[in-house]
C-alpha cells in the first residue's frame, strides 16, 4: 500500500495549500538552523553534514527515476534529469564533495536566483507522499538550504565574476540540452517552446527571443541574490 501511495498519481497538490506552506516554512527553518548547527561543529562534521545533504539530493533523483522505470511510467521526453535543478542535484556529490568556491558560486547563483520561482509556483501536481512530491522538494528546497549552509559555514562567499562563470556554465549547458531535445522530441529547460502554463516566459516574447529574455532576467536575479554578499561580507 505504501508503494502504491508513492507511485500512483494523486494530483492533489494545491499551490499555497497546507502542504505548500509547510514545505516553504521548512525550507526557511532549515536555511537558518543548519548553518547555525554547522558553525558549532568541527570541520570534519561540517563536511560530513554537507556531504549527507548532497547525497540525499542526488539519491532522490536516482530513486525517483528507478521507481518510474520499475512502474513502467518513465518517459524520456519529460522524466530525464536534464532540467537545471535536477542536474545540479544529481551531480552535487561529485562536484562539491570537497568545497570549491568556483563551483559553489555557480550553485549559489542558480539555486538562489533560479529556484525561487520553482518554490513559490511549483510544478508539482502530486501531493505528499507521492515520490514526485518528495523528489521535487528535496531537490529545490535542498539546493537552497545547501548553498546557504556552504556559504555561511565554509565562508564560500561568491565573487562578482561568479556571475560571469554562471552565465558561461548555462551557455555551455543549454546547447547540449537543446541537442538532446531535438533528438528526443523533448523540451527540457524550454529550449524549443514555452511551457503550457502561465510563467514569466510569457512576457519575454516569442521563440527564440524568450530565451534571450530569460538570460537577461537571470542576470537581474543573480545581481539581486549577490546583494546580501555585498552588504554582509567585509
| Main β-sheet description | none
* Cα Rg: 18 Å
**Helix residue percentage:** 55-70%
Strand content: under 5%
Cα end-to-end separation: 54 Å
Instruction: Name the average pLDDT.
Output: 92
Number of helices: 9
Give the H and E element order.
HHHHHHHHH
User: Shape from CA axes?
Assistant: globular
How many beta-strand runs? 0
Low-confidence stretches: none
- How does the helix and strand content classify structurally? mainly alpha
The overall number of domains is: 1
Description:
The chain has one domain (2-232). It has helices at 2-7, 18-39, 43-70, 84-95, 101-114, 116-120, 131-153, 161-184, 209-232. It is an all-alpha fold. The mean pLDDT is 92. Helix 4 (84-95) packs across helix 7 (131-153). The longest helix has 28 residues, at 43-70. It is globular and about 50 Å long.
Q: What is this structure, in a nutshell?
A:
This protein is mainly α. Helix content is 68%, strand content 0%. The mean pLDDT is 92.
Provide key terms for this protein.
single chain; 9 helices; 68% helix; 234 residues; globular; mainly alpha
Secondary structure: elements and pairs:
Elements lengths: L1 H6 L10 H22 L3 H28 L13 H12 L5 H14 L1 H5 L10 H23 L7 H24 L24 H24 L2
